[in-house]
């Protein structure tokens, strides 16, 4: 089973795709995480991507398509994958279709997490993660049970994404509106697009996703 998560930044794609990964034994592929790893390694890809990411802009299609192509060709993806943050342009959606059909594969489900734009900036600027185990938190909706201490591993160190600053978030939302939202009709036409209300409590969103997956 191959799944795509679509939705604006801060919609909960990362959280929900990690849950699906555990439950269905699929591999989560986050192009944002892959790029952040390239930036941290100081690779050529990382160098090309960093200034665009810091400015809240999308990185060029050619770069991201090549990176994704080599990732989904790896053996662990044979049992199925979840794309989180890809495709983000019509060019990427088209390239994905072509690379999958060349291998007799397809996308089975496209889950669109729908969240009103006016609540996204607050959601994103409040989020942070444990530096040690990666557990995710939000200042408003999901603070650690004990202030300053990770619920999962007890660490006292947390980090925020450089591009979660308010100024950058405005730009990321603009890129979403102009370049990513237009791919929704592309997947609507396939009959495999499912709209999920991403403004409900996280557990309810998970349950709604599970209901779609159960019918597959
Ligand atoms: P994310 O973690 O998915 O929010 O992605 C963080 C940043 O990485 C984005 O703001 C873009 O600069 C870049 N990025 C991630 N995925 C893509 C993609 N599919 N196409 C273009 N840029 C991407």
From TrEMBL:
This is Adenylate kinase. The gene is adk. One of its GO terms (molecular function) is ATP binding. It comes from Acetobacter persici. It holds the Pfam family ADK_lid. AMP binds at residues 31, 36, 57-59, 85-88, 92, 161, 172. Belongs to the adenylate kinase family. Residues 127-163 form the Adenylate kinase active site lid domain. Catalyzes the reversible transfer of the terminal phosphate group between ATP and AMP. Plays an important role in cellular energy homeostasis and in adenine nucleotide metabolism. Its EC number is 2.7.4.3. It catalyses: AMP + ATP = 2 ADP. It comes from the Bacteria. Zn(2+) binds at residues 130, 133, 150, 153. PANTHER family: NUCLEOTIDE KINASE (PTHR23359). The lineage of its organism: Bacteria, Pseudomonadati, Pseudomonadota, Alphaproteobacteria, Acetobacterales. Residues 30-59 are annotated as: NMP. It is an enzyme of class 2 (transferase). It is found in: Cytoplasm. Consists of three domains, a large central CORE domain and two small peripheral domains, NMPbind and LID, which undergo movements during catalysis. The LID domain closes over the site of phosphoryl transfer upon ATP binding. Assembling and dissambling the active center during each catalytic cycle provides an effective means to prevent ATP hydrolysis. Some bacteria have evolved a zinc-coordinating structure that stabilizes the LID domain. One of its GO terms (cellular component) is cytoplasm. GO terms for biological process: AMP salvage. Keywords: ATP-binding, Cytoplasm, Kinase, Metal-binding, Nucleotide biosynthesis, Nucleotide-binding, Transferase, Zinc. InterPro entries: Adenyl_kin_sub, Adenylat/UMP-CMP_kin, Adenylat_kinase_CS, Adenylate_kinase_lid-dom, P-loop_NTPase. ATP binds at residues 10-15, 127, 136-137, 200. Pathway: Purine metabolism; AMP biosynthesis via salvage pathway; AMP from ADP: step 1/1. Monomer.
